[in-house]
Design goal:
binds alpha-D-glucopyranose; 568 residues; 19 helices; eight-stranded parallel beta sheet; TIM Barrel; 3 domains; 15% strand; 19 strands; alpha/beta; Immunoglobulin-like; globular
């Protein structure tokens, strides 16, 4: 059997730098804080860190609007601090993957400043510029996915520039080879320093239809903005996502993308150490032939629901796993900096604690690399902001304005904005029971409000010492996964019957076979399955269960129990 690559067997952990750990006590996370917490991550069992953007940025899109691709945001530290962080992670056996935003820069990036300065400067063609429509106004009816038109007029050039996201995030013109050369230089800068790869931001949006074909969707802007960020019940999802796709058909996944990904892959492959590319974009086509584009592509469809049911998971796995090209490796996640927290999104309001444990078990037992989002390990929840001035996510600010313009009452518009605002899942991490959850000193105002539930045990210090805490459950389960060949590498085979109370499947590697059974219901279930084995030895359960042999055919599960057993 081929040796497993580090990015196949590691558990990834996403750090959102602004909110993770504040080392200098100014209310904003930084590298000092991250360095101090490297032991924490190692002890959790993390093998690789994905760092959301740490580059200088005006922060219109919380760091995803970059003004210098080879720098470090001063509020996070210096390049030397970054190097200490990287070395510290490596010294503890952890890899570091950076966020690479190719689609757009900040409008304060020197490239854009120059590009907008005239129609004949050396960088005049580095962004997507077009003349106004014949009768005046934007070149066509495309929307920005963050609200408003996708075109902004620039007086100096007398032209419009295109932006899929905020107007402060102008799209680069990737059809210009100089753009590529400049960006690949930045990529090499970090690879030369020793970073282990990149999470590619928003790759779907890199090219757009050069003919500027108008879009035909009837979806309203309010609806579009809500679809973008709200999880939907399974029944509603398909149709709404289809409308959404229609709205952006000319702006997403245009020709040229796969060649670009291949080129970037070839660049990475020049470096030793199996550097990795992870695509934000869920299309399996980004795996290319299986070994010539991206190494990992997020399985976002799994989390695009507000209730994970066995039926939803079975359908998702059947579709994804059979579509993968040979050699391609799956990648699963249930949360990140753009979507609601697992506890809130997939809870039922009654059994949230048990469901949080079950969902982690799902993520760690499915086939593929699991990616965790910081704070999930202590059960952080969404925080709905109450005042307009508290909103930091400008997408929510836009939704508020668009809704008010549509005649929605301001209170209701604010509630709507708070519900989709990505602020809800980006609040500072809770390190202790101290003021500000130990994120920053008392008296300092953190960049986003701290969720008051830190005082009810939702904090690292409180959970450290409690063997039954969610944090220690994460540690245990991650350790089990890392020690279990079948979970790391085995094939996934769902077991009949298709019962909607539980999900049972086999993970089979040449050296080991395991049965995984997850009870998604609030009642005990009796799992009957043909495993073809003589013995079943329990290796993990979310519930107290004496370590002993079980029947490989009949297994009694407690409500919400997650069970893993080895078959012999
Ligand atoms: C990606 C990021 C998101 C950002 C957007 C624009 O979707 O995950 O946070 O707003 O790209 O860069």
């Amino acid at each position: 059997m081929p040796a497993r690559k580090w990015w196949q067997s590691s558990v990834f952990y996403q750090i959102y730098p602004r909110s993770f750990a504040d080392g200098n006590g100014d209310g904003i996370g930084d590298f000092g804080g991250m360095i101090d917490r490297l032991d924490y991550l190692r002890d959790l069992g993390i093998g690789a860190i994905w760092l959301s953007p740490h580059f200088p940025s005006p922060n219109v899109d919380c760091g995803y609007d970059i003004s210098d691709y080879t720098g470090v945001a001063p509020e996070y530290g210096t390049l030397d601090d970054f190097r200490r962080f990287l070395d510290g992670a490596h010294a503890r056996g952890m890899r570091v993957v950076l966020d690479l935003v190719l689609n757009h820069t900040s409008d304060e990036h020197p490239w854009f400043r120059e590009s907008r300065s005239s129609r004949d400067n050396p960088r005049h063609d580095w962004y997507v510029w077009h003349d106004p429509a014949p009768g005046g106004g934007p070149p066509n009816n495309w929307y920005s996915a963050f609200g408003g038109p996708a075109w902004t007029y620039d007086k100096t050039r007398g032209q419009y520039y295109y932006h899929f996201f905020f107007k402060e995030q102008p799209d680069l013109n990737w059809r210009n080879p100089d753009v590529k050369t400049a960006m690949w230089q930045a990529v090499r800068f970090w690879l030369d320093m020793g970073v282990d790869g990149f999470r590619l931001d928003a790759i779907d949006t890199i090219f757009e239809d050069p003919d500027l074909t108008p879009q035909q969707s009837k979806l309203s802007q309010v609806e579009m903005l809500r679809v973008w960020r709200e999880n939907r019940p399974p029944e509603a999802t398909k149709e709404i996502w289809e409308q959404f796709a229609l709205m952006f058909r000319q702006q997403l996944q245009q020709p040229g993308l796969h060649d670009l990904m291949k080129e970037l892959r070839a660049l990475l492959d020049e470096y030793p150490g199996d550097r990795v590319l992870i695509g934000e974009g869920d299309d399996i086509a980004y795996y290319g032939s299986g070994d010539d584009e991206l190494h990992l592509v997020f399985n976002f469809p799994l989390m695009r629901t507000n209730r994970l049911t066995p039926a939803w998971i079975r359908a998702n796995q059947a579709e994804r796993l059979t579509a993968l090209p040979p050699g391609a490796w799956p990648c699963n996640t249930l949360g990140n900096h753009d979507v609601g927290r697992i506890w809130t999104a997939f809870g039922d309001g009654v059994n949230d604690a048990a469901l949080a444990r079950l969902h982690l078990a799902l993520l760690l037992t499915l086939k593929g690399t699991p990616v965790l989002y910081n704070g999930e390990e202590i059960g952080m929840t969404d925080l709905l902001l109450e005042r307009f001035e508290q909103l930091r996510d400008n997408q929510a600010v836009n939704l508020y304005h668009v809704a008010c313009d549509d005649g929605v009452a301001p209170d209701e518009a604010l509630a709507m904005a708070a519900r989709i605002s990505r602020d809800r899942n980006r609040t500072p991490l809770h390190w202790s029971n101290a003021a500000n959850a130990g994120f920053c000193p008392a008296g300092v105002i953190p960049w986003l409000p701290v969720n008051p539930n830190y005082a009810q045990g939702v904090n690292v210090a409180a959970q450290e010492g409690d063997p039954d805490s969610l944090l220690n459950y994460y540690r245990r389960l991650i350790a089990v996964r890392q020690a279990t060949a079948a979970l790391l590498a085995g094939d996934f085979t769902p077991l009949p019957p298709e019962d909607d109370r539980y999900l049972a499947f086999i993970r089979a590697a040449p050296e080991q076979r395991c049965l995984v059974a997850l009870n998604f219901s609030n009642t005990p279930v009796s799992v009957t399955c043909e495993t073809g084995a003589g013995q079943l030895r329990t290796i993990f359960s979310s519930h107290t269960r004496p370590a002993r042999e079980e029947s490989p055919v009949h297994l009694a599960l407690a409500p919400f129990e997650a069970y893993i057993g080895e078959l012999a």
